[in-house]
Design a protein that fits this description.
The chain is of the alpha/beta class. The chain contains 10 helices and 8 strands. The strands form 2 sheets. Strands 1-2-3-4-5-6 form a 6-stranded parallel sheet, covered by helices on one side. A two-stranded parallel ribbon has the order 7-8. Helix 1 packs across helix 2, helix 2 packs parallel to helix 3 and helix 9 packs parallel to helix 10. The relative contact order is 0.12. The structure holds 6-hydroxymethylpterin-diphosphate. 6-hydroxymethylpterin-diphosphate binds next to strand 1 and strand 5.
């Protein structure tokens, strides 16, 4: 899954704000490089971010989605009205970092469209999530949360076979929590749904390499953890540097085959 941020403030610094043609070129490049889908987002969820009004989010993503019609696209949104417009424009998957806790309309929108849905774990909300996150056992708690949100989605009419689950790397987690989630990813895979992992460029990677103030991680570190996630059963890797991830994962898949 290639990341296409149509935002002025994404943590990874790749925001393609108000330049739909640049965002579309980026997305097409990712698909050419082997991405199975591109994830278009108009609201940054980086630690400390405040969220954007619906009109602004639509203004950012709609021109991009219009130009990408016919391509495999997901929409990174928590808003029912943004998802509804995106689905009209042919989007296949709704990627909701709130796991249907943000907007009560979203579940119905996804269910009515018969769309794929990603449910992600987040402790708290982006504005505050990195303020001393605490767990007794991060993996068990994330697993219980995802299990409950999956049951909720199904109760709202979303078909279980269309749902994937995501531990939410960096969303209310310390580097130790993020590493533990990846180390024990098999416990989340045991929920029986495809698992998506988004570790690409996240600050934990820079911290693992020795910079306590790191805000982003390198491409090499991102690829390394993507390979580790794949080996532990992840089905979808969300990445900014698609070509490097595809090359690494293809090679690893050949070794593991
Ligand atoms: N991470 C980000 C955004 N959306 N969605 C899922 N399912 N999983 C993730 O790990 C995830 C996500 C944050 O990364 P990015 O989109 O690059 O940054 P920003 O939110 O600042 O635009």
């Amino acid at each position: 899954m290639g990341v296409v941020n149509v935002t002025p403030d994404s943590f990874s610094g790749d925001g393609l704000y108000l330049r739909p043609d640049a965002a579309v070129a980026e997305a097409r490049g990712m698909l050419d490089a082997g991405a199975a889908i591109v994830d278009v987002g108009g609201e940054s969820t980086r630690p400390g971010s405040e969220g954007v009004p619906v009109d602004e989010e639509l203004r950012r993503v709609v021109p991009v989605l219009e130009r990408l019609r016919g391509e495999p696209v997901s929409i990174d949104t928590s808003k029912g009205s943004v998802a509804a417009r995106a689905l009209e424009l042919g989007v296949e998957l709704v990627n909701d970092v709130t796991a249907l806790r943000g907007d009560p309309e979203l579940a119905g929108v996804v269910a009515d469209a018969g769309a794929y849905l990603c449910l992600m774990h987040m402790l708290g909300e982006p504005r505050t999530m990195q303020v001393e996150p605490r767990y007794d056992d991060v993996v068990s708690e994330v697993k219980a949360f995802l299990d409950e949100r999956l049951a909720f989605a199904v109760s709202q009419g979303v078909r279980e076979e269309l749902v994937c689950l995501d531990p939410g790397i960096g969303f209310g987690k310390t580097p130790a929590h993020n590493v533990e989630l990846l180390r024990r990813l098999d416990e989340l895979v045991a929920l029986g749904r495809p698992v998506l992992v988004g570790f690409s460029r996240k600050s934990t990677l820079g911290k693992l390499l020795g910079d306590p103030d790191a805000r982003v991680g390198t491409t090499a570190a991102s690829v390394g953890v993507a390979v580790a996630a794949y080996e532990r059963g992840a089905s979808i890797l969300r990445a900014h540097d698609v070509r490097e991830h595809v090359e690494a994962l293809r090679a690893v898949a050949a070794v593991l085959a």
